Amino acid sequence: MMNLTLGEIAAACGGKLVLRGKEVNIDSCVSSVDIDSRKVENGGVFIAAVGEQVDGHKFIVPVFAGGGILAVTQKTPEQVETEHGCKASEWGSYVLVEDTLQALKDIGEAYRKKLHTKIVGLTGSSGKTTTKEFIAGVLSQRYCVIKTDGNYNNEIGVPLTLLRIRDEHEAAVVEMGISDFGEMHRLSKMARPDICVITNIGQSHLKDLKSRDGILKAKSEIFDYMAEDGEICLNGEDDKLSTLKEIKGHKPHFFGLGGNPAEEVAAEEIVCHGLEGSDAVLRLEGRAAMRNEEQSEGIGRPASVQVPIHVPQPGMHMVLNAAAAACVARLFGLNGEEIKAGIAGVAAVGGRANIIPLPQYTLVDDCYNANPESMRAAIDMLALAETKKVAVLGDMFNLGEDYDKLHGQMGAHAVEAGIDYIICVGEASQHMYRAAMDEAEKAEQCCDPQEGEQSRQPVILYFPHRQALLEMLSSHREELIPEGSTVLIKASHGMEFAEVLEFLRSKA
């Protein structure tokens, strides 16, 4: 059960509570709150959200029939009966509000205020979901942890995550994503994080946020409702975040790869094992040194502790994500062995650097979303493969007026990284294709044949849309995807590259 009553729900969203049935009263506690009628538990609350495709009001009667105790609605039973033919007489208790989605946020905020669970609020331009997995995996070594499901990180997903928290949860890792100013302010107001983590300030959502300085400003809204005794963990390798020396009286903890003297948690001595991940040594010092281990000589001077770790996911960006998790773990008092075990046990998430070995080739499923930083990291990860390297790259959305330049940079980088097959898909990706062709031609001209073997030229192809690529793969897959190769699939979510992934899985 949740520590939330019918009366508190009505008060939170400023709605009118109408009680129906002798078995419920204003002090009746609810078991759950959801906007998906299929997930409403016995004794649960259904919020009848109105979306572009579906009106949740048509499912209110089935929810009550299945044991739901309350509906939050912006329509009366009589209105719903007229619009959808659902009998008003079969309704149970309900709260009538002006806007059910706003009610969801209000209820989530009210519930958060009743919780004693420590909230880790996590944001950044890229790497949020994988960093969330690392943080949750490490904290789970000692605590009962709940985390954001999938990518539920917006103004609907965050309150739903908060409403999943129960008394047994000692920590919650809440992913928070935005695309415009003001959104993070509203998310922070709901989540009220005890620890704020920012992975990086990249080049995503430039259409609305305009510049990296704008992105920094928008992401920094996470601090607006941070707990008074809260803590902040920032990427010390990021040129924007590293300038934040004090925030609302709080000195940030910096994590990184040893490139910034201010980093209290640094992953150093990194040894890459290709697609098998990396080994590193975590250096923890200053305020991040082990609180429960022996201190070095000197009164009150914390020890500098070194922890060898294995990061199972490939790429330097994954090592950085592990360092972020260690930084948070220190604030929860975890020791080196717990951090080491937690990092080693983190599994890849579907759509994000998820390696899928198949008989004819290996797929790297990174098709959930893309921006310049995450695409560059994915290309670098592919470059670690010891096989033929194939990059299927699609459009990156919401990049503003520099979209052509940013796509071009990715094409040139793929050539520089030594990718063997560069397949560019989408309208914006024509700039990626042209830049890749230019870079390949430049590399060929710079090659000195007297110094030995000429440089190997990549195969560079362009398809205007996903369907054109699929048609070519249907008839010439072996030419585009050589036997035994490693294939990266990367694009913004709207490109629907999951279809490309499933096609290649089925053909292997």
Topology readout:
Layout: H1 6-13, E1 16-18, E2 33-34, E3 45-47, H2 60-65, E4 70-73, H3 77-84, E5 93-96, H4 100-114, E6 118-123, H5 128-139, E7 145-147, H6 157-162, E8 171-175, H7 183-191, E9 195-198, H8 206-209, H9 212-219, E10 231-235, E11 253-256, E12 263-272, E13 278-284, E14 305-311, H10 316-331, H11 336-344, E15 354-357, E16 362-366, H12 372-382, E17 389-394, H13 403-416, E18 421-425, H14 429-446, E19 459-463, H15 466-480, E20 486-490, H16 498-507
Parallel strand pairs: 2-3, 3-4, 4-5, 6-8, 6-9, 7-8, 9-10, 10-11, 11-12, 16-20, 17-18, 17-20, 18-19
Antiparallel strand pairs: 1-5, 12-13, 13-14, 15-16
Helix pairs in contact: 1-4, 5-10, 5-11, 12-13, 13-14
* Secondary-structure content class: alpha/beta
Dominant shape: globular
Oligomer: single chain
Record field, number of beta strands? 20
Essential attributes:
single chain; 508 residues; alpha/beta; 9-stranded mixed β-sheet; 19% strand
